[in-house]
Amino acid sequence: METDLSSMIPLHAGSQQKHDTLCIFGTGDFGRSLGCKMLQCGYSVVFGSRNPQATGLLPKGAEVLSHREAAQRASVIILAIHREHYEFLTGLTDVLEGKVLVDVSNNLKINQYPESNAEYLAQLIPKAEVVKAFNTVSAWALQSGTLDASRQVFICGNDHKSKQKIVDIVQALGLTPLDQGTLLASKDVENYPLQLFPMWRLPVYIATGLTVFIFIYCLLTDVIYSFLSYRKDISFRIAISIPNKVFPIVSLILLGLVYLPGIFASILQLYRGTKYSRFPNWLDHWMLCRKQLGLVALAFAFLHVLYTLIIPTRYYVRWHRSDNVINQIKSNATSPFDIIIAWRTDSYMALGMLGFLFYVILGITSLPSVSNVVNWREFRFVQSKLGYLTLLLCTGHTLIYGWSKFLDVSRYRWYLPLPYMLSLVIPCIVLVIKFVLIMPCVDKSITQIRQGWERIPKSDMKSTCTNGTIAV
Amino acid sequence: METDLSSMIPLHAGSQQKHDTLCIFGTGDFGRSLGCKMLQCGYSVVFGSRNPQATGLLPKGAEVLSHREAAQRASVIILAIHREHYEFLTGLTDVLEGKVLVDVSNNLKINQYPESNAEYLAQLIPKAEVVKAFNTVSAWALQSGTLDASRQVFICGNDHKSKQKIVDIVQALGLTPLDQGTLLASKDVENYPLQLFPMWRLPVYIATGLTVFIFIYCLLTDVIYSFLSYRKDISFRIAISIPNKVFPIVSLILLGLVYLPGIFASILQLYRGTKYSRFPNWLDHWMLCRKQLGLVALAFAFLHVLYTLIIPTRYYVRWHRSDNVINQIKSNATSPFDIIIAWRTDSYMALGMLGFLFYVILGITSLPSVSNVVNWREFRFVQSKLGYLTLLLCTGHTLIYGWSKFLDVSRYRWYLPLPYMLSLVIPCIVLVIKFVLIMPCVDKSITQIRQGWERIPKSDMKSTCTNGTIAV
Amino acid sequence: METDLSSMIPLHAGSQQKHDTLCIFGTGDFGRSLGCKMLQCGYSVVFGSRNPQATGLLPKGAEVLSHREAAQRASVIILAIHREHYEFLTGLTDVLEGKVLVDVSNNLKINQYPESNAEYLAQLIPKAEVVKAFNTVSAWALQSGTLDASRQVFICGNDHKSKQKIVDIVQALGLTPLDQGTLLASKDVENYPLQLFPMWRLPVYIATGLTVFIFIYCLLTDVIYSFLSYRKDISFRIAISIPNKVFPIVSLILLGLVYLPGIFASILQLYRGTKYSRFPNWLDHWMLCRKQLGLVALAFAFLHVLYTLIIPTRYYVRWHRSDNVINQIKSNATSPFDIIIAWRTDSYMALGMLGFLFYVILGITSLPSVSNVVNWREFRFVQSKLGYLTLLLCTGHTLIYGWSKFLDVSRYRWYLPLPYMLSLVIPCIVLVIKFVLIMPCVDKSITQIRQGWERIPKSDMKSTCTNGTIAV
């Protein structure tokens, strides 16, 4: 709906009502788009350009002057120019004094320069107030008015007043300002739009690696094995049967990996007797992407559910069943109903489906808008209590599915473990250790430690101030 | 949780703590509810009424005075009266001078009057500062305290200070202020609460039209045909079999329609050699409701999945299968296992399910809270890359499903194309053109154009300032 | 992404850039964490402590002084100490005068003290401005920088300026301030982090109760009955068959319970002829947790769908079907195809699946981020129109599923009604009454009443000001 609203506003272009004047250096695409949007929202806009004459193609109602003249007109100057051209600003130091310089620039790759563009600007023109803003907004979005994507504008700067000015402008443009603190944050703000799901990378890599490995493993022990042994071509199993072995295995392993770092952290804290010493980086990073790991696991579980439910519709299955019936009749040997099998199959299916329900609930609560309206107590209840319940159900599901298969030697191909066993290792380890950790005695001391108690108090607080993650 | 909080606040009704005084003109339902809420949040409230005596039924702790007296008491005056009665305010111009007049009015239909109520008010009392606010909040919501629906209050006005005053009040009432800029936006703000899913209308119409058409088409070529030809009554297929042909077809066509406008836009830009000339309105509108189109397509895909997975549970299917087996035995002719069919069926099912996964992921990323925390690069990665992958998978799913059916003349009824073919037209066109567009040579020039480069630079910038959508 | 940003900020620890100074009383875990975060965001921090010497383990760059000295240094003093120790502050009244005291304390249980900690503080130091804030943020979250859970900081206080100061700090820390009004709200703010899904409790209790009851009911009439009557052990049905009877029944009853209170409310309003008299508490509470009721119902529906789709994969079902075929052949009596059954089964499945689609859509629209961007008209359209459509579809689904079963005496065990009948009672009542209520004549007067019209105007407005919920 908002997009709708904001997309209507442009209709009022050319408003006579006057906000204060804004100055934009640079008449490139972004400068033009921004100026255009500002005009639409009732600001008057002055462009600063190297050769004011030669610049066609500017928004109606906007003036174009030399940089110097333009700068004098406004108290806020938006620099829609590349960092490479900042030098020339030093020539304008006198007019820029006390003005708010808005750095909207982005780089081509993350951490391209030692210091952020905004910090570099602040060093160039120390007498001006530099504010970083608008770098996350796309020129296209401004023009199209369809801000489907982020309407968030990260803002940082050292001077509170100047920041407030920009915050007001951002709001007037119908965008959402997000104060990120001082210019120190500008590096992150500049890196932000260059990121492509940084937190998702590790989980996706792990998932891909696992998938490939398990797939080949199943291919060997299933299709290839039966081809080599019996010259039987069951290659068609590559389409559904084998993926439907791979998906649940990967999903369960990933779910285990979501809770493993928490276990490590607890043990580490117990061992160190304090929470004020930093975790190793790999553990930190692992903990920070648990949510993403979980969601990837959910996607695999989702596929497993689909692939399982489609089974009876498959030609192979249908053929197999009718073939089975026909043979029974021909051989006149009807297989009797075995209540044990009925119990076993039904219960592992039931466990699986219950597990999937909680899986989905976990996924839903990880939606930003949902996790924003729950308090810490609730969030931890869902993420740890429900999370472990899910892990428990899914592990149970797999165990009962496996049942006594592992005893049946004939099932082992080339003495390799059965695929489903691979998926059980990590979850079982996690569950067992967790079980130990929640024993009253152990739990008590962990809780103490997490409340700040220390076995040997020592003030290496620095570590706390760096980004040490605490196990939740 | 918040609703919970806000719904508790009323318990503190009748606070002695004093904020500044607010004046409300009009003792109607909305005026009373608003006054009541304000009292609860610690403001003191004065009602202005035509005959202060005769108005019973007002919140405890609120005074009722004549309009003139009430106005003198407060610096902020909320007008909870209909636009029709604004005239009488002209009589109070002297007391209203310099005060903040809050226009909360709504109209009965969109664009009822040439100018918005707020603008009309601003003309009536030029010396007062008019702010539009609260018109999106419902009286019921204020009373019940359950703000399940939007807690957003759109605010617009020409004077920044006055706007800030209202923003503070809105926040104090536990609502979310959204600055929409100057009074120019008031028309949109007033139209907003009258809208009923404006962006959904077109997609829903298209979907309905397609559904009806395809349904009748299938009805003819399936039920009616076989009745006319063989006097065979298979009308029961209307319940599931035929819908399960209609849903996937409509879903795929809609998905194609999501990406078609982007294709048009690119071609148009290539042809015009610039992005600074506006797209035709129909294309603009089409592009603005791509998201909704996609979500409707997802709903149909969802139904297709359900209807497909239920198949083996159906009485007809079960009967058919056992009948089939019985015949095989009687005729003593068992059909051999055909690995080609196994491959074909399994692989189109696999493609379909993978396609559905990405379909769902696309749907999730279109949730406001999700799309708000991704940057542009990520948003476009998901929406275009993943989007086209989905389209590709679903088209492949349909192609393999069709396989060689189209060669089998016996399947054509009345020489009409098979239903599934209808669904392939648009997606295939889109995919082919897209394939051409991403060829390095073509892609390069599109990228240039989108970065603001022009073949024949000409400054019809006006068009950019109107709402021209850029293809994403 | 934001978590990502905020989690990077700590890297800039030890900034030379100077915001104003903040003072923190108390060197406990939370005080340290908060101080640490503030240092990272460029504030300078002074700790106030009983014995400044003995406190090791403080953030680098923070000073530690006596309470008195520390207080003199800053205009904002954060009290990271327990309410129990507030008394000692009375000794500092002179230095605290005019300062902003931020109460971050939480209690151990809800409504532990007659007045909130913040109000108690305000009484102790009347000359200081007390602001309640930060109590919803966890120390761990501050340290880890991973604010997956709520980044919301509820703020309330009587003095607007002081509140604004805190709002600025909160934003600078990258958190989201939420103004909750005056100190009157502090009790709610303090209770908030202690809550564990308060609105979910009732729905979950109801659901659990119903589930247990229906489960036992089915167990009796199914497993136990057939054991007692025919000595037949079908206990395996406990795993899937019986739950798949329980889930839909509970789901439908819950869905009925979502719309029942609305019905009651309308009748009550019609009877009383006014909306300005408060509903009984039980009805209020019921209406406030309708959303949660609906979501629980959705979860059960979800399980029902899964449990139904898995049916043909089950060993029992497969065995049963092939057994059935074999018998047909042996007895040489093939059952003919019955088009009536085909129609009936297909159509109740179709209704069920359509119902589920709308169920899911309702669930999605109840996501905070979605319901935030729809206006009231749209919200009520979805929640009432679509809601009743869903109820209608699901009831129809059940009715057609039941069909003529209720006529078949043999199905009644111990003269108990068939389970599915239990689920139909409430939904049918709701639908019938609703049908009456939307009759033009009745509807007209309800609408009038809801627009504030009264049959016998009487000003018991007090009730409106208390939390009376209006039926939506």
Number of domains of chain A: 2
Mean pLDDT of chain A: 84
| Global Rg of chain A | 31 Å
Uncertain ranges of chain A: 1-18, 458-472
Per the CATH scheme, the topology name of the largest domain in chain A is Four Helix Bundle (Hemerythrin (Met), subunit A)
Query: How many DSSP E strands of chain A?
Result: 8
Coarse morphology of chain A: elongated
Largest interface: A-C, 85 and 92 residues
Helix content, binned percent of chain A: 55-70%
Strand order of the largest sheet of chain A: 3-2-1-4-5-6-7-8
H/E element order of chain A = HEHEEHEHEHEHEHEHHHHHHHHHHHH
Strand content of chain A: 5-15%
Alpha-beta classification of chain A: alpha/beta
Separation of the first and last Cα atoms of chain A? 37 Å
CATH-derived architecture of the largest domain in chain A: Up-down Bundle
CATH class of the largest domain in chain A: Mainly Alpha
Reported for the largest beta sheet of chain A, the result is:
8 strands, mixed
Oligomer: homotrimer
How many separate helices of chain A? 19
Transmembrane segments (chains A, B, C): 204-228, 248-271, 292-311, 353-374, 386-404, 424-442
Domain Ferric oxidoreductase (chains A, B, C): 249-394
Cofactor (chains A, B, C): heme b; FAD
Organism (chains A, B, C): Geotrypetes seraphini
